Amino acid sequence: MSLTPVHLQFIAIGGLWTIGLSAIAFIGGSIIGFALALARISPSPLVRRLAAGYIQIVQGTPLLVTLFLFYFGLAVIGLDRLPAIVAAGFGLVVYSSAFLAEIWRGCLESVPKTQWEAAECLALTRWQRMTRVILPQAMRIATAPTVGFLVQIVKNTSLASVVGFVELAQAGKLVNNTIFEPFTVFIVVAAFYFVICYPLSAWSRSLERKLNVGRR
Amino acid sequence: MSAVVSLSNVHKSFGAVQVLRGVSFEVGPGEVVAVIGASGSGKSTALRCINALETVDSGEITVCGHKVHDPALDRRALRRDVGIVFQSYNLFPHLTVAQNIMLAPTCVKDMGKAEARKLAESVLARVGLSEKADNYPEQLSGGQQQRVAIARSLAMQPKLMLFDEVTSALDPQLTGEVLRVMEDLARGGMSMILVTHEMAFARKVASKVIFMHQGKVWETGPGAMLDDPQTQELREFLHNGL
User: Fold this and answer.
1) Smallest Cβ distance to A118: which of B82, B86, B108?
2) Nearest to B207 by CA among B24, B21, B17, B26
3) How much is the average pLDDT of B146-156?
4) Are B138 and A216 in contact (CB < 8 Å)?
5) How does the record classify its membrane topology (chain B) (predicted)?
6) Burial (CB count within 10 angstroms: exposed 0-12, middle 13-18, buried 19+), residue B183
7) Interatomic CA distance for residues A199 and A197, integer angstroms
8) Do B132 and B97 contact (CB within 8 A), yes or no?
């Protein structure tokens, strides 16, 4: 038995779920991650330490384990029979928030201290300093590593298969279980991943070029 | 009229290093005070204390009526009255020259865009850079960037201007154009404190010269004091520096 259009369609639908799950992980992770990045450079030591603690715990846990924790943990607190995408979504949001927070903290801190000082001496509030002076500069620096991490997220959604979520990798596995042509099937799966990830890296490069106009 | 700036017995340490050891001086309205001294003499730190960029350990600093040594100081109110220009310009690289200047008036004084733009053009004219309004800082020479930095401060209509070694990063040619702008300001009656290594400029423009040594005001006098130093330390400093 060989690969049929039906199989391809099944894998393609898995690919769509991969994109959907990546979007959930990235959007949710961005919102929490941005707040965490700001918390990491907060003037309050307590806020800084809380954010650092969260990030260390998440970064020190394999994503696979995080996914299991959410899948079984949510059941323990009475939220059982949740669809796999919810557990996978939660796990990936937590995972990406911790990494995005550290990437962005680095970008925020790479803007020279003297820029903060100059803005402060012009009587800008801390919020104005952040939004008008620091963030625009940090965002330029952040583009490439952020999109680079987005590619990591896309690839790491394949781990969601362990909680029974049928995304691209899991779809490939299921197809292979019926036709037993692992090499062909996983070449196709790999091609799908490439098709999703390549435009992201190309986009990152073009953004970098565009944002560098008027400034090197 | 009372002093614009007054420092009284100001002490400041960084860890075990005592940088300021009882600094006192006053700056009257319209006065131009040049602070000179070797590196490590505490002159830049004194300037940064005046603008609350550093907090003092003890002593009192009053600037335009603001009690700077007071922990309850309203820093933003202080910064509206005091402009500062740094050695490294510190322009905002993502904004054009005009946007650099318009940022504070629009953010802090709620000025409209059009009015702020007019203001930017007028302060740029004062520093002789009208044609550079829509350039980015990196497209300008060091001297031009520093003049933009001065214009950016002027746009907030400060009552006092601080200059922290503003020409130290510039070659002699570019130094001249920045000093001319500062001289114009001085003639216009702006109260100014400048930390500088430009002795000729200090002698010519300053109404008072303060020589700092080992965290103290060592010798003070009019610009002519540089021709007739009273202390051994100032003599040595001038001899080594020139």
Assistant:
1) B86
2) B26
3) 96
4) yes
5) Peripheral membrane protein
6) middle
7) 6
8) yes
Closest to A55 (Cα-Cα) out of A110, A22, A96: A96
CATH numbers and ranges of domains, chain A:
5-211 (1.10.3720.10)
Structure tokens at A19: 């994109």
Give the tens place of pLDDT for each residue, B52-90: 999 999 999 999 999 999 999 999 999 999 999 999 999
In a mutational test of the B interface, the residue from A122, A135, A139, A215 whose CB has the highest number of chain B CBs within 10 Å is: A122
Are A84 and A164 a contacting pair, CB within 8 Å? yes
Instruction: Say how many CB pairs under 8 Å bridge A and B.
Output: 63
Homologous superfamily, domain B5-241: P-loop containing nucleotide triphosphate hydrolases (3.40.50.300)
A131 to chain B: closest CA residue: B107
Q: Choose among B53, B94, B156: nearest Cβ to A137.
A: B94
The shares of helix, strand and coil residues in chain A, as percent rounded to the nearest 5, are 85, 0, 15
- Boundaries of every domain in chain B: 5-241
Contact (Cβ atoms closer than 8 angstroms) between residue B212 and residue B35: yes
Which A residues 98-127 touch B at CB under 8 Å?
114-115, 117-125
